[in-house]
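[Q] Does anyone have a clean structure-token version of this?
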Amino acid sequence: MAADLFESYAVTLVAALILGKAAFGDAGLAFPLIVPAIGVVTAVIGIFAVAPRRADRSGMTAINRGFFISAVISLVLVAVAVFVHLPSSYAGLDGVTDAAVKGHGGDPRVLALVAVAIGIVLAALIQQLTGYFTETNRRPVRDIGKSSLTGPATVVLAGISIGLESAVYTALLIGLGVYGAFLLGGTSIILALFAVALAGTGLLTTVGVIVAMDTFGPVSDNAQGIAEMSGDVTGAGAQVLTDLDAVGNTTKAITKGIAIATAVLAAAALFGSYKDAIETARQEVGAKADELGLQMDISQPDNLVGLMLGAAVVFLFSGLAINAVSRSAGAVVFEVRRQFREHPGIMDYTEKPEYGRVVDICTKDALRELTTPGLLAVLTPIAVGFSLGVGALGSFLAGAIGTGTLMAVFLANSGGAWDNAKKLVEDGHHGGKGSEAHAATVIGDTVGDPFKDTAGPAINPLLKVMNLVALLIAPAVVRFGYGDDASAGVRAVVATLAVGVIVGAVYVSKRRPIAVGGEDGPGGGSGRVPRPVGPAAAPKAVP
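[A] Here you go.
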């Protein structure tokens, strides 16, 4: 919960500090820390502003109010900090060693303020866009609800189409934000990259409210689930919890969109560090700048291959994550069937289920299934870098970032839309609970859970890990590829070992059964059990 936001916060801040020292000198080390510090204060104000009012149309109205109040106050305080902390000219910056920066025209205060403002505005736009595609009172979710009248297949198709469409618009917003910040640097690449990093810190000024929004999702979801399972909450109270659960689905999708935006901004900033690492290593080994393998020119076939591999890794990673959920869910289903069969008293509430067995299955599977995606994130940059060179490795990162951005938003928004479409039907639309339409949306929600809760959020750390690994191995790739220490054998051995481990891990993962058991239960028969009738009836039918 919010792990991707914390990671984005740290990586973006580190990138801003590194680039800030080169671009703004001593002031560049302090200013990137001032911006999130302001965000801490304004987040507290924003959270207090979330207090509901009678005029609020929904819980999302109150959350939006807290977010926008925090964003506006942050922007005002950042403007004050800019004009107090920074000089009016680049010549007045202390500790800057780059003559081009010193002689750069313009006002550094304007660059810093506009860059942070771009990040804040980007966060607000992503919030509104994601809300449009996932809120129950908006057309996309209502269209999915209507599609439930024709069965689960059309629900799944409608959700996928909405997720794909929303990813395009979000990617355009992120791209415009990155390019707009980049243009602020003018002819200086270091100033441009620092502006991009500052946009990332601006996007995270409201991180306190964003983390609260992310936390709100699972809290409201569990509260509604507990209330429904207990049967103690009915009527207006149950409806309030259902409405808050729907709002929680939207807030979770919003936070994932903002988190992936910060990942792109941090990656763009780290590209500058990656290029510097290559240039430093090239000078140390005495290689020529135009040698094959050192240029990130997409017209070179090896770089094009790297680009395609980067995009492919995102798909493989997502597939492994979703398949892991499928396997674990299958194991849980068979364990639940076994307990119903061996402990029939569960049905009339005279026996308690063995909850620990299910928790044990989920915990063990989560740890075991983490191995292959983790190895994929760490070893694919090593395999690409040592086999194809640093140019192809840079292209690999570009492909992963582009595809990962689209994939993460698609998975988060489609999953949230499916979940809220189910809530829409449960509110009485299209037949309400127990209808065929409800069954169709339950299937859509089940498909969406691994999308929005597993694969989507996991793409963010995937991009971060691959970026950092590439940055760390770039000098070694140049050293063993050029100069006196050049060794094709070493590069081949490292690349072969990395590929071998990746292939082996994927092979072992694919050998695991999709579910425990077979078509029939261990004791014969289908293993199916009737649903318990009464307050303990689960919201989702046991398959």
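[Q] Thanks! Anything notable?
[A] The first helix runs from residue 3 to 24.
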